[in-house]
Design a protein that fits this description.
0% strand; 85% helix
Length: 106
């Protein structure tokens, strides 16, 4: 059987439960406050942007490293057999663009 509680114990229990309920309601109020919701949304967005930017940086770094590996030997010397054709294609593209611009003016 349960022990009989005194009115003072019951009142103390009620006061304690009211305090616990007040704390819980305060926490709910803070969580549902518009500034809190906006702040959490901003934090999540910033996290996604940072993660995406980090991935983009890694991908760009990898691409640059891959291109560098194709155009420069392991000892750091340029690979002319690969650089010359790439440079010639670049000069050809620039030449075509210049010719196209001259035709439009004429």
């Amino acid at each position: 059987m349960s022990e009989a509680r005194t009115p003072a114990q019951i009142e103390a229990d009620i006061v304690r439960r009211r305090q616990d309920l007040a704390v819980t309601l305060d926490e709910i109020g803070v969580r549902l406050h518009p500034k809190t919701i906006i702040g959490e949304a901003k934090a999540k967005t910033a996290e996604v942007v940072d993660r995406t930017a980090g991935r983009a940086y890694v991908a760009a770094n990898r691409a640059v490293s891959d291109v560098r590996a194709q155009l420069v030997s392991e000892d750091g010397a340029p690979r002319l057999e690969r650089i010359v054709p790439v440079a010639m294609v670049g000069v050809g593209v620039v030449g075509l663009l210049v010719m196209r611009a001259k035709r439009r003016r004429a």
